[in-house]
Amino acid sequence: MSKPKYYMTTAIAYTSGKPHIGNTYEAILADSIARFKRAQGYDVFFQTGTDEHGQKIELKAAEAGITPKEYVDRVAGEIKRIWDLMNTSYDKFIRTTDEDHEKQVQKIFKKLYDQGDIYKGSYEGLYCTPCESFWTESQLVDGKCPDCGREVKPASEEAYFFRMSKYADRLIEHINTHPEFIQPVSRKNEMMNNFLLPGLQDLCVSRTSFKWGIPVSFDPKHVTYVWLDALTNYITGIGYDCDGESTEQFKKDWPADLHLIGKDIIRFHTIYWPIFLMALDLPLPKQIFGHPWLLQGEGKMSKSKGNVLYADDLADMFGVDAVRYFVLHEMPFENDGVITWELMVERLNSDLANTLGNLVNRTISMTNKYFGGVVENRGAAEPVDEELRAAALAVPVNAAKKMDQLRVADAISEIFTLFKRCNKYIDETMPWALAKDETKQDRLATVLYNLTECISIGAELLESFMPETSAKILAQLHAKKRGLERMDQYGLYTSGTKVTDKPEILFARLDIKEILAKAEELQKAQLAALGQTDAGNAQEQEGAEEKSAADEAQESVIDIEPKEEITFDDFEKMQFQVGEIIACEEVKKSRKLLCSKVKIGSQVRQIVSGIKAHYSAEEMVGKKVMVLVNLKPAKLAGVLSEGMILCAEDENGELSLMVPEKKMPAGAEIC
Questions:
Q1: Taking the model in full, what pTM does it have?
Q2: Which domains does the chain have, with CATH numbers?
Q3: What is the mean pLDDT of residues 42-56?
């Protein structure tokens, strides 16, 4: 019986420089999904790679005094090295300078031109070099690029264009009839409301102002513009041929089951890419997931600040699996995650060294001390054992459900719930006390068997996220892998097995002062690499780098009519708390209202809000919001409302929910 196929991709990394930990997160996230799918019995093909053409590369190569190909060879090699260092199990690493890819891009361009989807024209617009995008005046935000906020410059040149509007209605229908196509739901709403429904402009797909790109075969002064080159890697990498001679792999694997991308490039993958595929008469990918960003806790990563975090530096300091655990566990499903040195140390010490590492070490050490290392199930069960058994059998099911939803952080939390339950079981059974009573030896042996069995289950489930750690634990227990299909059975660890004589310390506790000292050395090294010998130089460069953002912030202000002053006593009467929206639905017969179930501490309140034009009901679920709790209940459109969810409003009437900057529990007081 053949395995079901699962074809997944990451976005291909742009070869403008060494990827930081935020870029690397995507490769680790994709790897965890690929490994879990393989464990579930899927025939997985996981593709990643590099995007290597464009004006920015041409300019950087010129600055370095080398050819563009030499430049991208160097950077692509560095990206691949880091992906390998982080133990990503990709099946193919594609480069857009690969000969077979370039050949197919030329054929695709010609096919689309011949069938009238591409036409020749000229472009006069405002160009952003970092984003390699043209914009009209109306699309700019405060006169700057709407994607990156940088300066744009007038540009005029002959170009080929793709007729996007020809396929827009078809794409809208597909999105509406395939709710799983764009995830999370907030990304879908953004694409529909901001781009598709207002109407698509034709897309520039060639350039003449630079040479580093794939030449248009029938008009060599043009090179293929980034999107038609980069996006098509998802089909060329598995053997698509524009002349109808596609490989058996392409016929098997396409359409992709998952495109995993950053939320900043969601538009290109959910609008441009599907339309290109429609024009090629190919099926659309099954799902496009726009993951959030991993942000530096003290602000934006900046080379001038010397605070850019790289995966190899972090791996040197914490170990590969600890870095994998952190970025996977700390990234929420929809909102941005935060990384700091302090948080890394806290997680390693509490979750990895204590909850997991100490559990494994104690269990093996007690087995060696009391039974010469032999684990034996003597059947001396007590009621507390059933709770542990139930927890062990529930975790594989719950973790699989979370992974099916791409909620990777939640899946890891499920596994660590089992490890925490094991630690609690040790406190409940007190093996050291049982060891003092000769009549309790069978019970002691059974307790240690239960611990070993549960650790084996958790360790095997951990393989997709922390593969080296998983292998180390199973090796120390001399446990045979059972496979996910047998995780519904308890007691598969072979009674009578002998564990290792000397348990390895999986994760040593770290001293935060030592880590911060090492972090300071890394920062100095980064600044030295830029030729900055003191903090003044760093601040000067940082000021120049952030000037445009500061200018923009200065311009983007709103003055409103002041209200009557209140006293502190008036303010004290208002009670603000963090609420978590656990359910939300539209209020019938209302065009403006949503009704949310909001968890505030141990209570759940119903709150009606006039924000339907700005948020969908699906989008609201899971958000942490600011709530005025002691507002007198009232009925809106016949529905009882027991509080108020607070929002900010701009000059155009656009609303934004007020959300906590850091993780806060539902019920936390806002003061």
A1: 0.78
A2: 340-498 (1.10.730.10), 512-555 (no CATH), 568-670 (2.40.50.140)
A3: 96
